[in-house]
Write a structure and sequence with these properties.
The chain has 172 residues and is mainly α. 76% of the residues lie in helices and 8% in strands. The chain contains 6 helices and 4 strands, in the order αββββααααα. It binds zinc ion.
Length: 172
């Protein structure tokens, strides 16, 4: 009888310890992002010594979105600047690189194709893994790409439609 009693207290002590530990781990392991409001695992927040808990208040996903936006905003600016520069220096541009590219076009294309074919599975797997790990950033990047290439996409669609129309007319 005595043994059973002893066992019970010890067991409940263990249970209480476990519960305490779980609670402690919960407060150490999770944090709520002040931007998206989601509660996430602590390692989803970057290290920041200035904060009491040693982590930033905004999660990594939100921060990478912010920096991506910043990056693209600047990239668009750079592209415009580059285009203006090229326009201004059209005559001074070296023609050799163009000649080299033209001469080796097929060879370079062939090499790239060969490499892709050989590494297709690995590339696809890596891309998929990257996408799953950086879903939010990938989506933003895609949206920004569409915005940036609006005119090109429209042009491509127009050309595609035209070609198809010609092909179907040719068959008929
Ligand atoms: Zn967030």
């Amino acid at each position: 009888m005595k043994k059973e009693f002893e066992f019970d207290t010890r067991y409940s002590d263990v249970e209480k310890d476990l519960q305490d530990r779980e609670n402690r781990i919960k407060t150490i392991c999770f944090k709520t992002c002040s931007k998206c409001g989601e509660t996430k695992l602590i390692f989803k927040f970057s290290l920041d010594k200035r904060n009491l808990d040693g982590r930033t208040n905004i999660c990594k996903a939100c921060r990478s979105l912010e920096s991506l936006n910043y990056y693209y905003h600047n990239q668009v600016k750079m592209l415009i600047k580059n285009r203006e520069y090229l326009k201004a220096n059209k005559e001074n541009r070296s023609i050799y690189s163009k000649i080299y590219r033209d001469r080796n076009k097929e060879r370079l294309k062939g090499l790239a194709k060969k490499w892709y074919k050989k590494n297709k599975k690995r590339i696809k797997k890596r891309n998929l893994q990257y996408y799953q790990e950086n879903k939010e950033a990938c989506q933003v990047r895609r949206e920004l790409w569409i915005i940036k290439n609006k005119e090109r996409i429209r042009e491509y669609n127009r050309e595609y439609k035209r070609k198809h129309k010609l092909a179907s007319q040719g068959i008929a």
